[in-house]
Amino acid sequence: MMEIRSQEINLECEINGIDKGSLKNLLVVKLVCKDFNINFDILESINIFKEKEKVKVFISNTRPPYTKDDFCAHGYVVTELKEGSSEQQKFSAIISLFGLLVKIMGKESFLKTYGLNVMDHIYFCVRKANIS
Questions:
Q1: In DSSP terms, which residues pair with 12 in a beta bridge?
Q2: C-beta atoms surrounding 125 within 10 Å
Q3: Based on CB atoms within 10 Å of each CB, which residue in 17, 37, 58, 71 is the most buried?
Q4: What ranges do the domains of the chain cover?
């Protein structure tokens, strides 16, 4: 019998920029968090974020509660790449939200830090910090 453990990752971040994506009507929201930077795709028509806003990021293997004021989607961990020499090494984890991408970058492996694996099904939610 397979055991499924409930896991929730909570990060406090600030929106450092919102850029046009490479496809029509696509934006890339750039977040700066304590140990990781996160870039995620969002459609212009559903973007609820502004630069310099403080947000909370939730990554979970179970569906979290959410409201119309949150951006939530589900998808799969696709890969994690390691770049650079051992002194300058950087990791980039990629999550696919059925087409929209989330890229999590840091000096440490995001997957190892939080015990995630490639092809894990996850929920990715971004909530404005001033909304509980």
A1: 56
A2: 20
A3: 71
A4: 8-128
* DSSP H or E segment with residue 13: strand 8-20
Task: Please tell me the distance from the alpha carbon of residue 14 to that of residue 83, in angstroms, as a whole number.
Answer: 25
CATH topology of domain 8-128: OB fold (Dihydrolipoamide Acetyltransferase, E2P) (2.40.50)
Handedness of CA 14, 16, 22, 26 (dihedral sign): positive
Question: Can you give the pTM of this predicted structure?
Answer: 0.90
44-102 confidence digits (pLDDT tens):
999 999 999 999 999 999 999 899 889 999 999 999 999 987 778 899 999 999 999 99
Within 10 A of 78 (CB to CB), how many other CB atoms are there?
A: 13
Q: Exposed, middle or buried by CB within 10 Å (0-12, 13-18, 19+), for 102?
A: buried
